[in-house]
Design goal:
The complex is a heterodimer of chains A (101) and B (205). Chain A is mainly alpha-helical and 101 residues long. Chain A is 76% helix and 0% strand. In chain A, α1 runs antiparallel to α2. With 205 residues, chain B is an all-alpha fold. Chain B contains seven helices and no strands. Classes of the chains: A mainly alpha (101), B mainly alpha (205).
Amino acid sequence: MSIPGSWYLVLSALLFGIGALGLLVRRNVLVMFMCIELMLNAANLAFVTFSRTLKDIGGQADVFFVLVVAAAEVTVGLAIVVAIFRRRHNAVADDLSSMKG
Amino acid sequence: MGLLLASAPTLPDLVVFILGALMVLGGAVGVIAWRNPVHAALSLVLTLFGIAVLFIEQQADFLAAVQIIVYAGAIVVLFLFVIMFLGVDRTENVRSEPIPLQRPLAGILVVIMVGSIIALGAESHWLTGAKSVVAPTTNSFWNINELGRVVFSDYLFAFEATGALLIIAVVGAVVLARRSGAATSEEALPTLEEDEFDDFEEVER
């Protein structure tokens, strides 16, 4: 008997929580991006778990698309970080307050 | 929570799961705990490998390979390139806290969120829903056949859309990160003008 799906789902929830905590606490934009990757991976793990336990290949196809979206998101996000760094010479999220009302 | 221990897994499965879970959680804690972004990126690699191990444990071999190639091979390398390129690999001042009570509030909110996710799962018996809506997974070791068939038939529109998305992302990244252009000259012009103005003044004097 293999590992029950609930164990994977609890692990996925914990990983998502750690990623969310890092996103809320850290101030470096690059580390915040890495935390978003952690949360996406938690979602992927849950998708694969549902795919296995419900015997449906659709979950794995969804993971495929999440991977593509993550790659596109990181590409554009890091380009924005580079553009911000050229102007301000740091990558700290709290300093980007010029649009504050 | 009784469903958590409903069925006893075999020892190899248990060992692989525990090792994968330790890799995932240890790497994730490292990502948010290391002050140096390079160390955080390397911890991210550990988490991604742990996820790949758990994918293999759940018979998603193709996705495990893609996970390692795309994430560890491309995305983390991109992170490291940008970290090195920008020279932001210095440690962050973790003491300063611009928003008061940010950390305690974040911790409380995350604990509430994870607790309610787990409670909701336990309440609804974790896994409910119709079996095999799209296409069944086979029990064979390689399910890449079904995955390919589903991606090119049921998910064809989404597949084409991801192709467009990737093109748009590449073009957007090139446009954003290009060095020459209005952004840099706009920034450089005022200081240049002031310097020239000072030079002229000195010459006149």
